């Protein structure tokens, strides 16, 4: 099973992950990422890597 963890200290708050996977991420009130579903099902394995990779700096 996958687990999504966000490093909020590295988040720029641009909303790229939210735009790419809106059911899983959103920009919170403090301007950083909020993970909406930390343990998505295996059926989402191909959908999420691009959104997660958008965090990389």
TrEMBL record:
Pfam families: Fer4_15 (PF13459). This is Ferredoxin. It comes from Amycolatopsis coloradensis.
